[in-house]
Amino acid sequence: MNILLKTLAQICRTHKIQEKLLLCNTLSTGHQLLESLSKENVPWLNLRPVTPLELATEQAKPMLLTKNITIPTEGQLLFLLEEILQQMRANSQLQYFAELHNQNSLTRVLYPTIKELRLTGITASQLNESSFVDPCKGQEIITVLTLWEEKLSSLNWADAATIYNIALQTKTNSSPYYLIPEDLDLSPLELTFVKHLTSHKQIILPQDPVLNHSHSHTFTTPQPTPQSPLSWLFDPQNSPQPPELTILRAYGQTNEIRQVLRHLQQENIPLDNAVVCHTSTKYIPLILTITASQNIPVTFAEGIPLGFTRPGRFTLQLIRWIEERYTSLILHQLMTSGDMRLTSATTQARLLRQANIGWERSRYIPCTESLHQSILQKATAATNEGNDPYAQYLHQQAEHVSTLKQTLTQIFSRIPDATDGNVSFPKLCRGISQTTSTYARISSPTDGLALAAIQDTLTEAAHAFSGTLPLREALRRLHQVLDTLHTAASPPKPGHLHITGLNQAAFTHRPVTFMVGLDANFPGSGLQDPVLLDQEREQIHPELSLLTHEPAKRQYRLARYLSSRRGQIILSYPSYDTVEGRHTSPAAILLQAHRLQTNNPTADYSALQESLTTPAGFLAPSPDQFTTLEEWWLTTTLKNLSAHNINTVTACYPHIASGLEAHQHRAGTDFTPYDGRVDPDLDRDPRISQTLTLSATQFENLANCPFGYFLRYVLRIQPPEDAEYDPGTWLDPLTRGSLLHDIYCTYLRQTHNPDNPQPPNKQTLLSIAEDLINQTKQTLPPPSDMVFEHEKEELLRGLEVFWRVEESAQTKPAFFEVPFGFGQQEAEEAGLGLSEPVTVTLSDGKEIRIRGRIDRIDYGTAENLYQVWDFKTGSTYGYEEQAVFKQGRQIQHALYAFAAEAILKQSGTDHNAKVEASGYLFPTDKGEGQRFARLQANRHQILELLSQGLDIVATGTFCATDDQNRCTFCDFKIVCRHPQASIQAKEKKEHPDLDAWRGLEDYE
């Protein structure tokens, strides 16, 4: 036992039946001390831990009841301060702290200072602006404190300072023994109360001393005789014997924690015999992640961050969904995360994506209903065609859509709608709480505790403010109470490894102590308080703590903690920062420990480094010391401890065997299935299969990258098309281009209608644009009115280029948006077109069927001559006057020329129609109104090019492109291992099976 436990044991024996109250900062630490007594077989009859505030509340209780005074929660006090700051801002009383308030962090920053001032016994009337370096700052703090006092009085609330002041005015009738640890951390007001209450029966509990270190104790006692060698940590030359401790280092914090687990395993130490004390809360999520992955039971004295629990992640993601205007992508992520409890979650998430909602709360139900109706129509069509299995499948999907709609309806019924930008804060809190309770997945006791903590916090928040707030402000307040919330705080438990911070560690006694995080960052730098500088603190009150003293206090606290340990002690530090990629030094206290251990008071850091073993890394020291299966594989394989490692791995993991085989083939010189070779299939060749139609885009994709074509058109892989909410962007390039096409076509059809032609009119163009832009706004809501107006102005300004192009055009427009191969209805609606695809005879006599939509057909320079144009709304990058086909990557102009002639002839419009030129028109700011015309003199080459390219499909040689510049905007870069696939394709380009691919290079 250490000195504290021995003293406490003696008191329990001396005052066996008398009431004894053990003062401690938290009840949890007090109970840990009593548990340690029990483990030493010491009975502690009539002894219970209490906190100073608990004693003060008990003392003040009669007066609190008489005056009907309420004790608010911590959350209510935070909201009270927020209300005060909002009031000051509204009254233009917030200038010095205005920027922090705009950053939504002032409440959290200011609250500890207000609390500290109050617990020092300072009132607003005692403060003076002259005590502050900036009078404006002083005035604002005085105003905050004044309003704090006034609101507490008007609400009849009592914060901790009020409770202590009331307790000091009352007398106590009970007379227990008050047991007070000499280093009990108390504020001035707490200390005054404790001395007032306990002066008649006060017993100070001495602790293991730290020699040769200046530190004043809260309560003074005669220094006990040191019993631990670590009491001489700062006086190594006088130590009677070296301590039994181990100093270790590790390659980063992650490996430092793994080193702890290896030590427990290697020494066969039960988990509940060990405690891990850390110097930074950054270790908490790290330890949680590592231990959870290995199913190691752990308790955390400080609890765990809310975001590491399923209900916590669900709640925070739900708030983010609301913040980002109900973006469907976020809800989709939530549905598929595993944190949301849903029947057929994957199916509902897929259907949510199909509903094409984008964002805005108001679109969810209509878009879901539209999807439901669309699926039912497809089901009816399938039934009429006799495809009953497909119809049955569609009816099942329709039922899932109904379930999705019910889910959405229930969620929206609980979360209030901020139609005017404002929301009832209590309703919002209750709605999020109810939604979390219904849909958050609970998979562990910790999740259950997290859910309870969320419910309590939101209930408390709802009671703290009962009014209406702007939605953004309401969500900010929710972040304020939830982002820093920890849950599942626990004392040590049997069978669990206990994790604690230094502040909570003193009364935890286990046979093995790990102290992690002792690098040069410890004990800290003593940065100034952002609210009260040390020079201001000295001016305000002599008993306000100075932050420049904090590093020394932390160092002493650690030394005191180590001196009170009995048993095995392991100190460690991360010797390398894996994030910043630099070596880190050990803390000064580790050097002191080394000096004490080696009995060498003059040892320096180099001596310490030389004494340490190799830093623990990602590999275990040997295969029998692994903590995870991955660690065993790494250690066994990379240390080359077995000659048949690969055979062992592939025997256990067939997928790895397949991967290694693929890697071997790709690295070779042959063109294999792992490079894109598939068995020839006539059904894939449009020249053979009468059911296949080809579009210009399809062939251009084939010529750009055969492997990309294979993924998109053979395997039919499509990237998800999610409309992501971007507060600064409304239309993506594809939607913007489609809108401009609609504007061009509508205007040209109206002004060049053969039945009712109208003269060109810029106002007509702008009016059409206004209508179509507003229609797009209804189907795809902009993130804000400002963004909408900005992009609308850009669109209208871009039409100036289109207008100038039309004014200077040498040809007369004739037909617009001419479809071929999309059915009779679309052809009739367009006024000109073919319901069936156009047949093109290739140079070898074979035929292909093509389909598409021609943006524009103009009358040519003579009778029966025509020109075909395709609108491009981007830049002219990649288009050149001399490069006609670009190795097959630009063939639309040629295919559409064939199609236009066929349409004009077969429709009876012009039986002698001939296209004299086709090309691309860029009527936008980016395109600067340029035209790229392709004359038809080399028309025969496109027929050869098509045959050459389709030979790739026929032979099944879908290699990746060898030109990495073509991969910039590819959707499949991850799938094809970019850029490695292009590098390997370049090495295999001369393979005889790739003749068809190489042949495309002849068509520039």
Describe the 3D structure.
The chain is an alpha/beta fold and about 1000 residues long. Among the domains are: about 5-65 and about 170-205, Rossmann fold, CATH 3.40.50; about 75-155; about 240-305 and about 495-605, Rossmann fold (3-Layer(aba) Sandwich), CATH 3.40.50; about 305-485; about 625-665, no CATH class; about 665-720 and about 955-1000, no CATH class. The protein has 36 helices and 23 strands. The strands form seven sheets. The protein has a six-stranded parallel β-sheet with strand order 5-14-13-6-12-7, with helices on both faces. The longest helix is centred in the middle third of the chain and has 27 residues, at about 390-415. The termini are far apart. The mean pLDDT is about 90. It comes from Dethiobacter alkaliphilus AHT 1. InterPro entries: P-loop_NTPase, PDDEXK-like_dom_sf, PDDEXK_AddAB-type. Keywords: ATP-binding, DNA damage, DNA repair, DNA-binding, Exonuclease, Helicase, Hydrolase, Nuclease, Nucleotide-binding. This is ATP-dependent nuclease subunit B-like protein. GO terms for molecular function: ATP binding; DNA binding; exonuclease activity; helicase activity.
